[in-house]
Specification:
By secondary structure, this protein is an alpha+beta fold. The protein has one domain. Helix content is 18%, strand content 43%. The strands form 2 sheets. Strands 3, 4, 5, 6, 8, 9, 10, 11 and 13 form a 9-stranded mixed β-sheet that branches. Strands 1, 2, 7, 12 and 14 form a 5-stranded mixed β-sheet that branches. The longest helix is centred in the N-terminal third of the chain and has 17 residues.
Amino acid sequence: MLSLFMLFGCEKENKQTNETPKTEKKAALTLTFKPKFEGQDLVFNKMTHIIQASDTLNFSRVQLILSNFELIKENGETVKLDTFAYLNLAEKRNEVKIDETMPEGTFKGIKFMIGLDSSINHGDPNRWSKNHPLNPIVNNMHWGWQGGYIFWVCEGYYMNNGNSNQIFSFHMANLKYRKQITLETSNTFSFDNNNKIAKVIDVNLDKYFSTPNQYSLKTNGDLSHSSSPDEDLIMDLLYTNLSNTFELK
């Protein structure tokens, strides 16, 4: 009896030892942000873009700081990703590369935050390594004079009474102007059989000045750095439009 017990015990132990543990997928996800205007590739430094309010614009600078990335499963559950990003679309710094362990399953969308949580936004900016997207030398987006980062920059020139050098400048900053963007698509994706996924996110700058709030630089104002009550009235309109500016392809 003792011999039989030892024999079966050894067989059970060997069976458990030979089972292959289920592992998650080490995967790479690349998000490419493409500046667009009315469905076409936006050309920077050209006075050719006419917004809904009939202002003619020349875009020179579009920059973003992003955080709190999440993947959205088909059932609505989310998977958090430990990623920060700095984008400078005019200089073609437009990719976010995420190399993490991904769960199996099918995904229908992506979430991210334009801006940063309070502890990071008001933390020591010098703690980041020299190539980190939150290093002020890398992004030139830290607002040293009042602390914290600028989350979104949109700048350029517009035509005003024949003057093509009239500047517009919108800097979205401060915690109240953090913006969560939720994007979904019918083109679902999965990390089950392919560990390299590339997705495109259009940045529709025509909608930044039109949807849902039609915005005119001449009548609504051409400057807001989120630093006064009057400037906040301007930024509130554009902040609302920012929700419709991004599209996941």
